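Entry for the shared binder. Reason: the reviewer on the internal report wants the predicted structure included alongside the sequence.
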Amino acid sequence: MNIMLFVPHILVKDRFDGAVMSLLAAIAIGSLIAIVNAWCFQQFPQMGLPEILDQHLPKVLSLPLIAFTALTWMSGGIFVVYSFTRTMGIFFNPEMNEYLFLFIMVMACLFAGSRSSRSVQFALEVLLLLCAPLGLFILFKTTTDRLVSWDAMRVIAGYVRHPPSFRSVAAATFLFSGYLNMQIFNRLNPPGFRLKHRWLIPLLGASFAFFTFFIPIGFHGTIGVDQYMYLWSVTADSMVLKYGFVQRVVYLFLLVFSILSLMFVMNTYHCAMEMFKACWIQYQAKAEESPVPKSNWIICAIFGALSFAYASWSNDQKNQWATEWWLIGRFCVEIFATCITLIIVYLARKKTKVRAPRGGTANYGK
């Protein structure tokens, strides 16, 4: 979803001023943050971030942190749903009212995001399996297209010695922010759960980072690439399937990103909803809820209304500005949250060790 949040566009603006080094720094920083957080949440099986904070911090500290995290989740979903409707309106049906696209998307995400965590998890898995083959095919097409210029990519890669910029590093680390889902979905992990194949995090993150940055440069050149706001949509529209029943790759691209946008906004609505619910005094975390509580519908309906309010205020330039600052703020929040989580893990392990019987062995994690 970094494409819908203008991450490639931000990097392209700094392509001569440290974007390449920013990518390399983001791969190291993002991988470290993701792996550290995955390890931290493994120490608290069947617990989400709200329960962890409530258990180890006083209410005067835990409630503001939970509420601020919820606002971060909610705003990310609003930015994506707006960017998606703008993209669909420009490249799919320019004559259609963009608020109709927004209404359809918001209603789908309102229904999906208000489900239980277990249902959302299953939906994410199914949707990922549906769009992964098409997404991999598009990436394969971008690297084998005869119009792509590898020389233009090599020219930009030559600027690797320029120092990184904070804006580009903050934007590029969003590629590694998938671990944030564990703030809620860690409730579904049983005791003894261990995240396997963590070496794939830097590998996949680096692959997508270089794809999303260098491929548009290969199609549009080192100078012309910064003339487009919806960079990857234009890049997909530059490719054709010579022997395909769908000639323009942009239609496959929009199909994939319709699914991915639904996944992302459904996920952000659900996580923000759970965070806001955790601010209530009598809240009890539940992985499965049947029937769906009315509070879920109400909170997600508020998110949908805020999406319409943002759409009425925003335009392409305002949305790009807001998204850029959101990416910077998210990066700072992730670093702060990682430090807080590490401190909590240290205190929890120390408390467990002290409580172990004398002469015995404290089982406080591996």
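Summary line for the report: Residues 170 and 341 are 20 Å apart (CA to CA).
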